[in-house]
């Protein structure tokens, strides 16, 4: 039995926060909204509770969890050293969609860190998440609240569809504002390294830290964020990412719609507002507008909903329009590349 309650995202009802915090302290799981995506939370200091997260999601054991805190006091027990760079990042970007990887203390259970010597920490900006952590009085370990391999949930209904019957409570705070996950930044090396692009851009980090690099593992090398090796965000249909000039993308997509239909396949389109009118007239089985090409925050906010709709409406073929990699576009393109299994066509 899963209890899904509607909670006020700006002013969370105390009643629900108390009930959820109680469950967390008892070692149970609660799904909660954050500003990026929904998280599947457990007491980060309780190894058994955290093990349950892996079971419920079907998550590989070697993929560590992000630990969410509500204040800097909580961080002290978790990390060996609160470095000057970490302090800078926290001052500038916390609460917010930035996760910091630092050397961990022995207080952090091995199951949380996936056996690594480091721990990933983030202070979320969402009032529900912050209130829940405060009320529980413990840091909350939380991966995205989807089944492994599905797009991250950006609405309470997504969590419900994935996890109903598997966890006691879902706090439904509506739609997440950012829509893609946090940026994971490794601060344990010489140069700060982005392990996963996300809600805080490389450009923003560079303003504060100076040089920042992106971890680009080669095919025979493991990525430093274990989760990045899995094909996350994979829709059931075959997704192709198209990159190039608008008129070429529209022509290619139109061809593919026609070809797909001649093979009796359902064809779904994920595109920008600007391309939508021309593609609409090609009669795809699903046309999902991600947002304006000039508003990457809009595209980020809609991306996972679009991917989920393609699944729900059984699209066999999915064609996604690429966007500029500037700013938040870098995280969007990272997710689309993964969803495509690197089936990328330049036109
Ligand atoms: O926005 C977010 O980050 C959301 C919300 C709920 O906070 N959480 C989220 O968690 O996306 P998850 O578990 O889906 O992704 C965590 C990523 C994975 O790629 C994981 O491998 C990486 O962070 N990670 C966690 N701990 C790490 C560590 N100690 N070193 C390197 N990578 C780590
Ligand atoms: Mg995830």
From TrEMBL:
Keywords, in A-Z order? ATP-binding, Cytoplasm, Nucleotide-binding, Nucleotidyltransferase, Transferase, tRNA processing
The UniProt GO MF terms for this protein read: ATP binding; double-stranded RNA binding; L-threonylcarbamoyladenylate synthase; tRNA binding
Has keyword Cytoplasm?
A: yes
InterPro entries the UniProt entry points to? DHBP_synth_RibB-like_a/b_dom, Sua5-like_dom, Sua5/YwlC_C, Sua5_C, T(6)A37_SUA5, TC-AMP_synthase_SUA5
Question: This protein's superkingdom?
Answer: Bacteria
Q: Where is the YrdC-like domain?
A: 14-200
This enzyme's EC code(s): 2.7.7.87
Q: Which PROSITE patterns match?
A: YRDC
Q: What is this protein called?
A: Threonylcarbamoyl-AMP synthase
